[in-house]
Design a protein that fits this description.
186 residues, alpha/beta, 7-stranded parallel β-sheet, two-stranded antiparallel sheet, 5 helices, 19% strand, Isochorismatase-like_sf, Cysteine hydrolase, Isochorismatase-like_hydrls
């Protein structure tokens, strides 16, 4: 059975309106937002800390370019006034931000990471969290990715990219545990 620390933090990564842009292509795991919302409700009901990570792009034309709608949080997953918001400019939410310090000052050692993109910001942040000594948990049903072309031009289905990214994380960086098991542990 999965156990959660009483102060385990839910880290919601890049759940912004820009992720809904058709320009990003076909994605997997269409129920991810629903499961993220269920975890968010459980975290709030148990008074555990929630961190909302927002990507602020430095690249004009990005779905996360400042000042446009894509940069805003999706309404159903928007932070409450007392929840921490961490902005970042690169995929890793620990790189050049105060996230590690914010967690350590509060004695938080267990992190449940959800959001997007599985093989980009979620994986980068989970890898750093694991390397920094945090107990990182990634529910596979709370993240998604898009079809992706490799360097030879072959397009890999989002389901395969997602599965490989989670397998990479499970090797050394994080535990991969379904959201339903985490909800039972709250």
């Amino acid at each position: 059975m999965t156990t959660l620390d009483s102060n385990a933090a839910l880290i919601i990564i890049d759940m912004q309106k820009g992720m809904l842009s058709p320009q990003l292509g076909r994605r997997n795991n269409l129920g991810a937002e629903l499961r993220i919302g269920q975890l968010l409700s459980g975290w709030r009901a148990s008074n555990r800390p929630v961190v909302h990570v927002r990507h602020i792009s430095r690249a004009p034309g990005s779905v996360f370019w400042p000042g446009q709608a894509g940069c805003e949080f999706q309404e159903a997953l928007a932070p409450l006034a007392h929840e921490h918001v961490q902005e970042k400019n690169v995929p890793d939410a620990f790189a050049a931000t105060g996230l590690e310090r914010w967690l350590r000052v509060r004695g938080i050692r267990q992190l449940v990471m959800v959001g997007v993109i599985t093989n980009n910001s979620l994986e980068a942040t989970a890898r750093s969290g694991g390397n920094l000594g945090f107990d990182v948990i990634v529910p596979p049903d709370t993240t998604y990715t898009y079809d992706q072309a490799d360097l030879n031009g072959r397009v890999w289905p989002a389901e395969d990219v997602h599965a490989l990214s989670l397998s990479n994380l499970a090797m050394d960086y994080a535990r991969v545990i379904e959201a339903s098991d985490l909800l039972k542990a709250i």
